[in-house]
């Protein structure tokens, strides 16, 4: 596991300090790759950091492709006592073109139910179907595949996610920035056609309480929010040390204040009803990074595209 002992201890101490200051720690994730595909996954789950986080968080999430049964029994045998009395979720990367492939979905459902049956002390309670909006998936985004992605029957509750993984390629690459701009535009325009349906989701969620950080190579990064959380490994999103409740609150309050002022003075954003939403979601520094002066999702003052759903 590529983390120093000092960083590992700092993260565990941070979790405890957050709890001591009345934060609720919901879920920590291991990823983004299939955990069983890594030769050192046993060492990772045995690491003091993971045991420390398991004590403080209510749930753990691991990434699995579920393409075979290989390693599932051993993995469950390690996780079950680790998360005893708590919850486990699994993120499964999926292709939109497979959402109507009944043979594939049937096999996937069998493996999920088999994996669930292996747990005695841990509540394996949900699957995140992860449709990365890039390359082949963005090509196959349409009414049929999007609806099918929300109607998956995999034996446990399924929550569909549509993240933009471009940021993991590095935001210093102009081609990556152009691709993210293009794919974000395509998804935004498509999603607007789903307003007033059960499967419509706000492009800019009302971020109030939630806050997500990603650890990478000795640093903690805040993830801005546009449709989904976007981990971005750039200095402007980095949480300064020491990592504790005070630094998290200061980071959030300062970032919110700076973004609110910047957006209020912005020619397009200043009079928008989503000004507060975007300030809380750190959208302004994302706009700067993408070289955009216009609304990232074309939602300016479009209340009709925010929360309307059919029951």
Q: Would you report the number of β strands?
A: 10
CA distance, first residue to last residue: 45 Å
Q: Beta-strand percentage?
A: 5-15%
Broad structural category? alpha/beta
Helix percent reads 25-40%
Arithmetic mean pLDDT: 91
Strand line-up across the major sheet: 1-2-3-4-5
3D architecture notes:
This protein is of the alpha/beta class and 311 residues long. It contains 11 helices and 10 strands. A 5-stranded parallel β-sheet has the order 1-2-3-4-5, with no helix packed on it. Helix 1 runs parallel beside helix 3 (48-56). The model has no long low-confidence stretch (mean pLDDT 91).
Helix/strand layout:
Layout: H1 5-20, E1 27-30, H2 41-46, H3 48-56, E2 59-63, H4 72-82, E3 87-93, H5 102-117, E4 123-130, H6 136-139, H7 143-149, E5 158-161, H8 174-192, E6 213-216, E7 219-222, E8 225-226, E9 228-229, E10 238-239, H9 245-264, H10 275-280, H11 283-290
Parallel strand pairs: 1-2, 2-3, 3-4, 4-5
Antiparallel strand pairs: 6-7, 7-10, 8-9
Helix pairs in contact: 1-3
């Amino acid at each position: 596991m590529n983390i120093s002992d000092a960083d590992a201890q700092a993260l565990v101490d941070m979790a405890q300090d957050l709890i001591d200051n009345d934060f609720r720690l919901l879920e920590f994730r291991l990823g983004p790759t299939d955990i069983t595909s890594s030769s050192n996954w046993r060492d990772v789950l045995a690491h003091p950091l993971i045991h420390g986080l398991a004590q403080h968080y209510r749930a753990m999430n691991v990434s699995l492709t579920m393409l075979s049964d290989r390693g599932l029994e051993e993995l469950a045998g390690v996780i079950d006592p680790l998360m005893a009395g708590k919850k486990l979720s699994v993120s499964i990367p999926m292709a939109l073109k497979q959402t109507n492939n009944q043979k594939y979905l049937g096999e996937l459902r069998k493996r999920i139910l088999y994996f669930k049956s292996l747990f005695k002390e841990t509540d394996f309670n949900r699957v995140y179907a992860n449709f990365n909006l890039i390359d082949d998936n963005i090509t196959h985004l349409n009414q049929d595949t999007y609806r099918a992605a929300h109607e998956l029957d995999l034996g446990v509750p399924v929550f569909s996610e549509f993240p933009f993984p471009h940021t993991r390629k590095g935001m210093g690459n102009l081609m990556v920035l152009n691709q993210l701009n293009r794919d974000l535009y395509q998804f935004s325009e498509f999603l607007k056609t789903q307003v007033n349906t059960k499967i419509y989701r706000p492009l800019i969620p009302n971020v109030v309480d939630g806050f997500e950080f990603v650890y990478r190579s000795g640093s903690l990064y805040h993830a801005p929010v546009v449709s989904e959380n976007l981990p971005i490994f750039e200095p402007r999103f980095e949480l300064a040390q020491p990592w504790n409740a005070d630094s998290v609150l200061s980071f959030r309050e300062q970032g919110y204040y700076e973004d609110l002022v910047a957006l209020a003075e912005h020619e397009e954003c200043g009079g928008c009803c989503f000004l507060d939403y975007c300030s809380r979601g750190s959208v302004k520094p994302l706009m700067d990074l993408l070289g955009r002066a216009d609304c990232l999702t074309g939602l300016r003052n479009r209340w009709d595209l925010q929360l309307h759903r059919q029951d």
